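## Example record

The block below lists the input lines for one assembly entry, exactly as stored, with component labels intact.
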Amino acid sequence: MADVTLLRTGHQQPSWADIPRDLAGMVLRLLPACADRARFAAVCPQWRAAARQLPLPPPLPLLALEDGTFFSLPYGKTFRFAGRSCADYKAAACGRWLVFPRDEGCFVVDPFTRATVTLPALSRIRLQPPNAVARYTQMGNSRIPHPFLTWMHIKDLKLEVALHKLILCSPNLVAAIFGSGPHAQILVCQPGASSWSVRTNDRCKCFEDMAFYQGKLYALAADDENLLVVNICQDPSTGDPEVSRIGQVIKGDLDPTVQAWLPDDAAKFVRKLYLVESCGTLLMVRRKVYCSSTGSMLLMAGHNEFEVFRADIKHSRWVRVTTLGDDQMIFLGRYYSRAVSASQYGISGDHIFFLDDDKVNMTDYLYDKESTSVGVYDMKTREVSSPLPMVWDHKMIHTAWLFPDD
Amino acid sequence: MAAPESGDGNNGAARMVTLISSDNTRFEVEAAAASLSQTLQLTILDGGGGGGDGIPLPNVDSATLSKVLEYCIKHAPAAANGGAPNATAVDRAELERFDNEFVNIDQSVLYSLIMAAHNLEIEGLQSLVAKKVADMIKGKSPMEIRRTLGFPDPTPEEQAEMNAHMLEYGWAYE
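Predicted C-alpha cells for the full assembly:
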C-alpha cells in the first residue's frame, strides 16, 4: 500500500502541499486568527507538520461565550469546541481557563488541552478566625452591619456571592474575588485543597479587579481606587494559603465628579475598573460607560470612554498615561485582561479592545441594541470603532478572552 | 569562466547580465535588477553572467523567469536606495499598486513565482506572494483552501484526516 501511495505522489503535479517549510511559515505568520491557523493545518499533512513545528507568534485571542460557542478574532462566525461542552462556564481565568463551579468542586478547565485543575467547591469556606460573628447596630427600624460589612454579614444575610474573578497565581496559590458590588471579598486556596480561606473580620469592599504582578497579588477597590497588596501566608499544618494582611500601596485620587452622579442626566456613567500588566508596568484602566435614563430605574448603555493610569508604586500614586505605546494593545475583559504586541499581527497599536460585558449577577445597565459586540478604543483619537466584522445577537454579559498559546 | 570585463562588480546600473531559463531562453537584464536575488548577486559580484556567458537557471522556466524579472526591474531602483528611505509617497504608492496587480494572477503562476523566488532568494517577492496566498486562505475552510490553490480532490483517507484534524483542534462550525 505504501508503494502505491508513493507512486501516486510521484505522478502528481507540483503542488502547494510541497512548498518548502520556510515558505509555509511565511504564509502561516501572516495568519493571526486561530481559526485560519487550524484550517491551514487541516489542508494537508505537510502543512499540518509545518503548523505544529514552526515557531509562530501567538494567535489573536478567541472570545468564549456562555453558551459554549466562541468567536475567533476577527471572524464573526461562531465555532464550537467539538466533543467538549464549554457551555455554562461561570468565569474564566488567566487567558486559557474556563471555570465551572459545581457542588462537588470548582473545576478549572483548559478547553484546548482538556487539562483540569480542581479547586474546592465555592461553598467550602474556612473562616479565619473561625469564631467570628456578624455584628449589627440598630438604626431606627433597621439593623446595619457594625462596624462595617464583613464576610460574616454576607453569610448571615445570605447575600449571593458569585465568582467575580479568579487568578491561578502559582501552583500553590489561587486567588478569587467572591461577590460583586460592595459585597465582595478576596478568598484564596490551593489546587486540590478542601476549602477556600477567608478573613472574617476584614471589611468587604467593591473589589473590582485583581492582578498577580511581579510575584505579588494586587487588588483594586472601586470605592476609592486604592491599589491594595494582598499578603499571603501559609497554614503551618496544611500548607494552605491564607490572606495575612491587606495593605494599601497606592491611594486613589478619585475625582469627585467621577465618584458622584452629575446632576445632568446626559453625563451619567457607570465606572468600571481593570488591572492589566503591559510591558512590565501595572496599569489601571478606568472605563466610563455613559448611560441614559429610560424614565424608570433602568439605564441604557451608551458610548464608552477610557482613561489609563500607570501604577507608580514607589511614590504611591496613579500616573495618567495618554498612550499605551505604539506597539501595545489591550484586550479588556471582566475575567481577564491582557496587553499584547500589535505589530506581530500587522495591525497598529495603542488600542483597547473591550466587550459589552457586565458584572456577574449585578447588571449596571441595559443595551438598547439587539446585538452587543466588541469595541475598539483608539487612545490617540479617543474614538471607538467596531472594525471587526462581528455582529451577533448574543448577550455579552458573560464573555471571556481566551489566549490559546499561553 | 570569468567574463571579459568582469570589473569590480560594483560599477553601476549600466552593467548587463544574461540569465538562461530551464527551456534555454536568454534574458538580458541590468545587474542591479538581477541582484535582487541573493543567489544571483553572489555570482554577479564574482563577475558571472556578463559578456557571452549566461547564468543558467535550470529550475526556472522562461514564463516564470520573465515574470520574476518584471518584479526585479520594477523594484531595483528602490532596492538600490537601500529600502528607499528617500522615496516619495508617490513612488511608494506606485510600487504598492504594481505589487497588488502583479500578484493578481492564477494560483499556478503564484506557485511557480514563489518557488522561483525561494530558489533565487528574492526576499521581497517571497513575502509578496506569501501575503497574497495568506489573503487567499483567510476565512476559508480547508476544502475551500484546497480548491483555491488547485489541490486535487482529497481521497477519502485525506478527507477523513482533515476532519479528524479539525475535530482534534476542536473546531467545528456551528
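Chain B touches chain A through 35 residues (CB under 8 Å). Chain B has eight helices and four strands.
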